[in-house]
Amino acid sequence: MADTLRTRLPESASCAALGRPASSQSVPEWLSHRARLSPERPAIFCDNDCLTFADLDRLVAATARGLAATGVRGGDRVALLARNGIDFVRVVHAVTRLGAAIVPLHARWSAIELARVVRDCGATLLAHDDANATTAASMADLVPATQRVPITTLAEQHGGGRDEGFGPHLECMNLSRVHSVVYTSGTSGTPKGTVLTYGNHLWNAMGSALNLGLRDDDRWLACLPLYHVGGLAILLRGVVYGIPVVLHERFEPAAVNRDIDEKGITIISVVSAMLVRMLEERQESHPYPPSLRCVLVGGGPVPHPLLDACARRSVPVAQTYGLTEAASQVTTLPPGDALGHPGSAGKQLFFAEVRIAGKDGDALPPGELGEILVRGPTVTPGYLDLPQETEAALRGGWLHTGDIGYLDAEGYLYVRDRRDDVIVSGGENVYAAEVEEVLCSHPAVKEAGVTGVPDTLWGERVVATVSLRDGVHVSEADLISFCRSRLAPYKIPRRVRFAGALPRNAAGKLLRRALREEHQRS
Prior knowledge:
Blueprint: H1 30-37, E1 42-46, E2 49-52, H2 53-69, E3 77-81, H3 86-97, E4 101-104, H4 111-121, E5 125-128, H5 133-138, E6 147-150, H6 151-157, E7 178-183, E8 193-197, H7 198-212, E9 220-222, H8 229-241, E10 245-247, H9 253-262, E11 267-271, H10 272-281, E12 294-298, H11 304-312, E13 317-323, E14 328-332, E15 347-348, E16 353-357, E17 370-375, E18 382-383, H12 387-393, E19 399-407, E20 413-418, E21 422-425, E22 428-431, H13 432-440, E23 445-455, E24 459-468, H14 476-484, E25 495-498, H15 512-521
Parallel strand pairs: 1-10, 3-4, 3-5, 5-6, 9-10, 9-11, 11-12, 12-13, 24-25
Antiparallel strand pairs: 1-2, 7-8, 8-18, 13-14, 14-15, 16-17, 17-19, 19-20, 21-22, 23-24
Helix pairs in contact: 1-2, 2-3, 2-6, 7-8, 9-10
């Protein structure tokens, strides 16, 4: 395991070579540098508040002093339990300013699940906002060694001006230093702490900017949870790019659409289910303003019916493929390429390499399905304190994502499914996303989830759960017949359940395990 993954995160040695002590100066202090470059530019819009980069820097300095007073120092890990908001933003920057690593916690997990993560990462302190005070209190007996501190008390007790000790000494920035430990959602097993360095985040931000471009009037709307890598990436890119982030506490389609109209939003990151709700809330006769130049859609393959709906309404969709282990984006299809390459997640970003590998690990030719491998400076150095899992995931110098897809002759990536979600029925591979796309093309179907359940004859059989559009009805037999004319026999769902909504995590990703359990119970 690399040094950065040891129980305690080490101080940098790079500044010592320059005659400086290894301290906070070895931290790539992006916010402090940004506040010097463009102090009066807006940094964060949240509710009715607007903070400039200078405002945010002062708030973070006070918060950092508050954290330091509790005993936080370089190499520590600080867990953060908070909803999207200014409190979340200032703690992230304050923790990393001290040379500690931030561990954002999934705000929808139970106290038991959260305590497991806090113990696993060895957090010395748990910072929480008022909305999560009860949950934090209930964790006291579960993690007695971890100090719990309300975020509101940090800056209140340690206010004041700039702390000049936290300067952006660019010549000794240590990009290999750990910035954050982001835990996977745990939908298919015990969550693992993905270690992400400053370099991982920076090269990902640079690759995205080189792909999508960067404009002086850009404003990025963040309605994804900040404790997921997609939300955290937006927060950091705002500082690196020097553009404001318009932060929403939660995703509400009406509020998102209103801000796109009224606040000059140019970029927004969502998943397919969120985009569907945005389009449903907005009448087709009311187009999005031309200022909206990019709707990044990730979290899984985008159904073709949704792409068609966006094309009809001139919504500038940019499909993207990414994962926590690569600090967010790996490939992105710019809006201008969407119609020419429907269904593609685009080409690899500037600092990423993508390969499709067969079972033997060898690269496959264009058009052949295999596992998606990723390499480059955006890729994690490993999982926290899990050397065997790290070695398995990074074998051969490539990140083995577990995702299935192919590259076409031009290098465009097409993502089919998660390897764990591939259904093997009668020896044939069935890709759930393909069946879901067919079901979603039925005019009565709002969303669909497909999984496999055990079958004594076939190994697994394909089953589906669908949510219907308001005011329409279709029978199970009708949907199966619809699939029969569009899919090979072994791909056709043997059973269709109806539900008001499909189970999803906070980032909008479909919880197939929950679907499988529902089918097995019924």
